[in-house]
UniProtKB/TrEMBL annotation:
<dbReference type="GO" id="GO:0008168">
    <property type="term" value="F:methyltransferase activity"/>
</dbReference>
<keyword id="KW-0489">Methyltransferase</keyword>
<keyword id="KW-0949">S-adenosyl-L-methionine</keyword>
<keyword id="KW-0808">Transferase</keyword>
<protein>
    <submittedName>
        <fullName>Class I SAM-dependent methyltransferase</fullName>
    </submittedName>
</protein>
<dbReference type="InterPro" id="IPR029063">
    <property type="entry name" value="SAM-dependent_MTases_sf"/>
</dbReference>
<dbReference type="GO" id="GO:0032259">
    <property type="term" value="P:methylation"/>
</dbReference>
<dbReference type="Pfam" id="PF13489">
    <property type="entry name" value="Methyltransf_23"/>
</dbReference>
Amino acid sequence: MKEKEHSVPDIIGKALLDYQQGNYTEDIITETSISEEDVLPLPYLFRDYMEMPGIEQKALQLAHGKVLDAGCGAGSHSLYLREERKLDVTAIDISPGAVEACRLRGLKDVFVQDVMQYQGEKFDTILLLMNGLGLCGRLRYIDSFLTHLKSLLNKNGQILLDSSDLLYMFDEDEDGGRWIPSHAEYYGEIEFRIRYKDLQSDPFPWLYIDYNTLQNAAAANGLNCELIMEGEHYDYLAKLTAF
């Protein structure tokens, strides 16, 4: 799925470990190809259930059975499911620092792993939260991405994911149309760059997908798609289940 190898130091992991170990002095700075620099506060990544957006709370309420938390970050979702819901949770992330931070927070079944390389186990619930579908990178990879996730589901299993429709970020003309750059294959494909202290990543691809496009992609890959909840900022929670 990678078009080329990007030089991405473990910026997220460094930041999470700093916070977990009491060395919090700066936040993460993000920038995308369609937006200016923004601040990602480290405390937000360690939030508890009551501090989470409604969409995340709803996803955690719907989770059941054996759970895979893909792209777990600091492990806040996994911790809630394990400690409050008493569910069997496996957490994975490509960031070694994030995985170490999760272990320091008390998670045991947490591993450095790319979800697209994960195999051998099946789950009742797969979580892809905080725009987790972005791990797909490009819309052209959505078929292989969804097919692989489907292969990790038990019978009657579910994929819970949130994403956003970025159409609102493009200028509107007098006829109600939107000015979308012609170089993009799909307007939800953006380039991300992150910075923390003296570390900065190369741009890397991230995918935001509107619900109708997700619904069509799901159907093409043998998955039902249900809109569970809409947020306040053009975001939504969807549930995917096998036919």
